[in-house]
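Journal club prep, shared notes

We agreed each person brings one worked example of a sequence with its structure written out as tokens. Mine is Amino acid transporter. I'm keeping it raw so we can talk through how to read the token line rather than staring at a rendered picture. Sequence first:
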Amino acid sequence: MTTPNVKKPGLFAIRDVSSLLTETRESGHELKRSVGALHLTAMGVGAIIGTGIFVVIGEGAGIAGPAVILSFVLAAVACVFSALSYAELASSIPVSGSAYTYAYATLGEIVAWIIGWDLILEYGVSVAAVAVGWGGNFNVFLDAAFGVQLPDAISQPPEEGGVFNLPAVLVVLAITVLLVRGVRESARANLVMVGIKLLALLFFIVIAMTSFSTKNFTPFFSEGTGSVTTAAAIIFFAYIGFDAVSTGSEEAIKPQRDLPLAIIGSLIICTIFYVLTAVGAIGIASPDQLKESEAPLATALNDGAGISWAAWVLAFGALVAITSVILVIMYGQTRIFFAMCRDGLMPEKLARVHPRFGTPALLTIILGSLIAVLAALVPLNEIVQLVNIGTLFAFVLVNIGVIVLRRTRPDMPRPYRVPWSPLLPVLGIAFAIYLMADLPLGTWIRFVVWLALGILIYVLYGYRNSRVRRAGVAQAGPDALRKADAPRRTDEDPAP
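Then the structure, token by token:
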């Protein structure tokens, strides 16, 4: 069999899906498939439900009044379009890397590098920012439950008058150790934490229903119908996190079945809890009471239901919620970085899997240490918005990836297919661009600077060391792929 005469791989070299799948079985780079549908769904819920619901409901109520309930539904609908695209690609390409890997298989290496570099920052800043918030919430819990607080010097980041955020560092290091120990252990710990925070929200919902009144629902559109969309744009970011499920593709026991269930299921579960929580909050407290509080759910129980002692329960629920967010998002970052290293775009030695734990231990320790330093010392207020623009950028590329792969590889097995494609992926792109356009100019400038730095690193290192270039195999585009694949196919060996 002669090798097809194809061009030398260029900037837009595309990784064949079959080669990506073969890569997952390489000695030293093989992750353990040990996570089922329940744990994957819990990962999605763990990443989505953080402090957002405990805080953002107050902001939303201040904008839309009682109609904030519809804002939660609208934000969920906006997420669904991208979630469906993630589900299709995750089931079709069950390989670590999430949007990075999907871009590599559809849009080319340079696009994959850009989104991978973007996701490294997005996930890293997100973990550091959430860890800083964990330190603050730890103090809130100590005060609510025991009437004590840690000194500001060791519990606040420097930009807020502290010296060293010790709680943030400790929680990041603890999560790092857990992730090194194994994905199964991490998934089990997350499942427990997800159960606790859902119980905390269920506690609020049940108590709210016992004192429920309809008086605060009139007028329902107190701020006008347009306010529903405005509030939804803010609430949208309380749903972000379902994409982290796709980073577990390579460690899922039955990825073709379980990943779509987990991605879509986690979004549905969170939407139900969010809507019920919003209904309960409006039923016992007015929108004005909620918007003026930094802890709107605790305020609702205290002022509306007369249960002041419930503050520590919600504070504990928020603390656990934040912990699981750190765990899942940091897990996602390590798997994206792992995929980039295995592809040669980053140092390949970092992609070595620990023989005992079955995890990229060295890589996890390095990232955990860097994030701990970031959480302890670096001001985060200005760069945290990069999390939003990075996520939305990933959403755009994943939706584009579905459309492109449908055209270039129509014969590829797809255990789950986005219905009404390309309409729904196009809607996902439109929603993401709409929200990106509303972000501040400073966020865009920092985003472009970060990507420019990434392009420089790619030119100096990634392009030369890329696996497709070292192998000398051109994967220049879909036409070349089809020609190269065709002679090898048999009835027993379906197209990848």
